[in-house]
């Protein structure tokens, strides 16, 4: 069991490492990571279906191994939800949204206080009840991972607690980034009057040219412009994919910018000559 599980875990972490090292939109990252993890859990599920646990293996599997993998799935699903509903606007609006997400996590810990304490203290006196199959009432089975042979009373609660730890780190980091943003004076707040698709073209052009450095991501550029311009661009990845695949000229706005600048330069030169 250990050999199969850790080989599978290594494969998953390698795939996630590749995804996280790429400059991709956080929603795209979460979507792709979720696919990787669903497939891995399906493989694990099939392995367990025909596997006969030896002494102590069943508790170890459902207490340590399965939660370790499933927590990653829960994390990326929650990450997608948090980012897809992240509000536009000034940093205080976004910060309040993120703080509410932290409150939801703390509320979960409070609701499952006994299990949380059992988890963080490394207790084991109820392991035979919590992590052996056949002890899980039907009404609390977990969706999609709920087959009798693959479910115990608390394995997914442990997975949720581990996922929450990852989420708290992520949300706290996002709050720290917001706190480090300088708020523009109200007199400097500008309103974007062109279509949002045009701004997405500009974002991808700035990214492709590495205008903010090679390590800057699409998400960072998008977050900065959304906060600065008080605008909600929704899912820029899908907007980019849409105009890239369905528009005859996917860089029409950038060409219009170039044309406008050239006309401005020409007009300024003509004005200088007349003087």
Give a verbal description of the structure.
The protein is mostly helical and 275 residues long. It folds into two domains: 2-179, no CATH class; 186-274, no CATH class. 69% of the residues lie in helices and 0% in strands. Helix 1 (2-21) packs antiparallel against helix 2, helix 3 runs parallel beside helix 7 and helix 8 (196-208) packs across helix 10. It is elongated and about 95 Å long. It starts with a helix and ends with a helix. The mean pLDDT is 87.
Could you write a compact summary of the structure shown?
With 275 residues, the chain is an all-alpha fold. Helix content is 69%, strand content 0%.
Radius of gyration from CA coordinates: 25 Å
The number of domains is: 2
Shape: elongated
Uncertain parts: none
Ends distance: 85 Å
Give the biggest sheet: none
Number of β-strand runs: 0
Average pLDDT number = 87
Helix content: 55-70%
- Helix vs. strand class: mainly alpha
- What is the count of DSSP helices, taking H or I runs of 4+ residues? 11
Helix and strand pattern: HHHHHHHHHHH
Amount of beta strand: under 5%
